[in-house]
């Protein structure tokens, strides 16, 4: 068994699952034909597009319409499915889980969507600038109680999470640093939809933070945090863990954090180094990560077709443990094995069934089109086609036997039975159901849960 | 699923001794159970168990203190939050032990680290297994690995984004996560219901294939556990009956009702981890939310114990509550409280099983460590008490040392 990632097709599929939400067979073909470095550059070099697909934010600003968390999630899922700039959406999802803000606390859609656009705009931008923008973002200020962080009565919520989760990481600051940083952010507030510095509520006195003393404000605190190499290490580790595999080797973290630190926190440069790292294409990286519910569902919809969706697609993500715009805690989603337990397992595979078995007027999976396009005139060819496109052709041979036996359980499957007339309605339906069942079983397999 | 008959003997032995001593309800076929309730977010202990006799409390909390004439008095110094009538009733009934001032040395004020500390039972080092998981592992080491998988169960989403609670993590086994309802089953194509069995058989065959990728193997193990438990759990949920009035619109209470149904069945789960619904991280405008959150816990557990009593199980089920930390003594500028230390824990059971009352010392509001109260009882003492005196197992390896036990178990 060699490294599957030596195969250009599998390498392209791997890159598209990590830098995006998985490729269609056509996309995988196109990326496989490119030199790998060129493929990475194509993904990295997109133009910022704030008007992707159906722009809910604009709709919200034109009318007095208020969106539910499911409507917002639906809009974002569609954007993930249809974007031609998958890395932009993938980074936006990363930043959303990193600089979390939850609907359950903010309760207003516009600030959350505005924040979402900030993450899209800064997808591969400068991390230091992003931290300063986030610190002024009304949704974040609301979420971590910046409104009530006042001179003489500091609220430590933002100061603590800024260091613990957003930048330098636990173990690199003291409780005294938390208290002093909270003072520096006093008066950082918002009014309406805009940041507002409330001078009267700002504590302009002297603070001692990470060994330095001065009349610091929030930006000074951020600059001190950014001056520490530990910040670059923390963010590089998190990005590697999200995009490549958990527990990166210390030498790898050092290499990446050097790049990040020396580039003055250029996220694009860091991501280029992540995708081009030999470790990213190592056997260890292949199928090392569990797909998040967004990746699982968006990936399926990109492969099965995606017209006629509605808000239920966002609810399906929620059932599986990922409510977009409403992460469970300020730490975001733990990811990896936390996406799996016996309860979430059923929510995952039953979502797959609801897609593959959908013949409705709204969402509909067309089982026949690929059969015609690819001339899949036998059960064997049909199963091979989907094992190849959905599992990179990398599967246990006994899995194929299980699928063949399943299709033949009620008598040998004959794909041409799909063309029988209305008098054989039950036979047509039974065949149609088996073909949908094959895809459901593949999408329910442990290997398909991985990316 | 005949696990009750093959339960760990120490459970049974303990149970029998209770029966003999008290000559109360017949418990011989109802082994003891432990319910761990997580109040995530950092519960404000001072507005939960209110030191209404201490004027300092009113001085440092000018806008959020609970008035003395509103608290549910436990003695002339302490009273419960007015929303905790259920707990007051349990207390008056001798079913509730309140352990005051619980914590650990050098408290950590990160939600995530402190939650890890409480769930792992290890404040000093970062480890990747939990205190309940180590108990399950000890069963494994006794050759009862099949039981270890079945005894533990996580009911409801812990709000951590999935997975299972760290308290249950072990290197050897994983417990079921179950939330009740009708989603815990494999669904086939609704257009051809007769195909479901064939599809399920194929799925089980696929999940039966070992995989050299450890993550894939973890997934397939969860899948098999889920498929194997699904029919029994569904049947229990559909047939369980109680006259206990659980509060409506209370997900925590729904979870407890699910637990009651399982305890009354022969499914075999006996150690449950149940999170409350919603966070206790009351940095802002605390009075608006905190009472509601406490009411959810108090109302839910009060109904749960009525339900258990109806099924003759109250004396065989002990429940413990915890949060990752308490909160700062003084209120902040936002009518809320920032992260702090020293919290109250509640332990509840039937009155023949528990010695209700006050335990530990109420922390001083003036002798502070940088604005935070000093704890006097280590949380591992509570864990050790439950392991040694309730479950009947040696706590040393589970809590990492010898911590003095308390005497709330009868």
From the N-terminal CA to the C-terminal CA of chain A, the straight-line distance is 19 Å
List the quaternary state of the chains.
heterodimer
Beta strand % of chain B: 5-15%
Order of helices and strands of chain B: HEEHEEHEHHHEEHHHEHEEEEHH
Provide the structure class of chain B.
alpha/beta
Order of helices and strands of chain A: HHHHHHHHHHHHEEEEHHHHHHHHHHHH
Greatest interface and its participating residue counts: A-B, 75 and 63 residues
Number of strands of chain B: 12
> What low-confidence regions of chain B span 5 or more consecutive residues with pLDDT below 50?
1-30
Helix content of chain A: 55-70%
* Basic shape of chain A: elongated
Which word captures the global form of chain B? globular
Helix content of chain B: 25-40%
Number of strands of chain A: 4
- The CATH class of chain B is identified as Alpha Beta
Reported CATH architecture of chain B? 3-Layer(aba) Sandwich
Q: Indicate the mean pLDDT of chain A.
A: 94
Beginning-to-end CA distance, first to last residue of chain B: 31 Å
